[in-house]
């Protein structure tokens, strides 16, 4: 029996969390880990006490043919990364890793190399998370240093 690496282990947990998603396009799960302890999890879905897309039977962004990564203000969902951060203490998240994994609803395939949106990046930076880990091609992983986003932001606003 091959023991999974930590990246494989936490990514599998993120995929399991994603099963709770209520999105009709993609199901994402996020797991925040620090010192080999799970701090928090989150999946994408409508805010508490509001109707989910799966309950409404439609996705406004899909009906309007909005490409992935655009016009998130029209989406009912709170992203998995945001939900994971909302449910954790900042003190616990400083220096932590966030594992992000997703499934395409139509194909059932795992999303390869998912990227947190710009709003989620801001939330991740503010939470003090150090690194984001996402599945990459060939069963590998891509490790994103959150400090790189901060540097990119500084360059883009000069």
From TrEMBL:
- Tell me where in this chain the CMP/dCMP-type deaminase domain is found: 5-158
> Superkingdom of the source?
Bacteria
Question: Which Pfam families does the record associate with it?
Answer: dCMP_cyt_deam_1
Q: Where is the active site?
A: 81 (proton donor)
One example of the protein's molecular function in GO is: zinc ion binding
Q: Which UniProt keywords apply?
A: Hydrolase, Metal-binding, Zinc
- Listed PROSITE patterns: CYT_DCMP_DEAMINASES_1 (PS00903), CYT_DCMP_DEAMINASES_2 (PS51747)
GO:BP terms for this protein? Answer: pyrimidine nucleotide metabolic process
Q: Where do the annotations place Zn(2+) binding? A: 79, 117, 120
Cofactors per UniProt? Answer: Zn(2+)
Transmembrane annotation, as ranges: none
Might you report a single GO cellular component term?
Answer: cytoplasm
Q: Which family does it belong to?
A: Belongs to the cytidine and deoxycytidylate deaminase family.
Name of this protein: CMP/dCMP deaminase, zinc-binding
Q: Source species, please?
A: Syntrophobacter fumaroxidans (strain DSM 10017 / MPOB)
């Amino acid at each position: 029996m091959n023991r999974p690496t930590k990246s494989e282990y936490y990514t599998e947990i993120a995929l399991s969390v994603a099963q709770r998603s209520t999105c009709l396009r993609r199901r994402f799960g996020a797991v925040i880990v620090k010192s080999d302890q799970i701090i928090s999890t989150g999946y994408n879905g409508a805010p508490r006490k509001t109707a989910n897309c799966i309950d409404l039977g439609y996705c406004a962004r899909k009906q309007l043919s909005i490409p992935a990564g655009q016009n998130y203000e029209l989406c009912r969902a709170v992203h998995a990364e945001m939900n994971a951060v909302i449910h954790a203490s900042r003190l616990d998240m400083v220096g932590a890793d966030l594992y992000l994994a997703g499934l395409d609803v139509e194909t059932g395939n795992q999303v390869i190399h998912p990227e947190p949106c710009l709003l989620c990046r801001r939330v991740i930076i503010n939470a003090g998370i150090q690194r984001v880990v996402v599945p990459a091609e060939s069963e590998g992983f891509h490790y994103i240093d959150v400090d790189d986003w901060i540097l990119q932001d500084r360059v883009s606003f000069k």
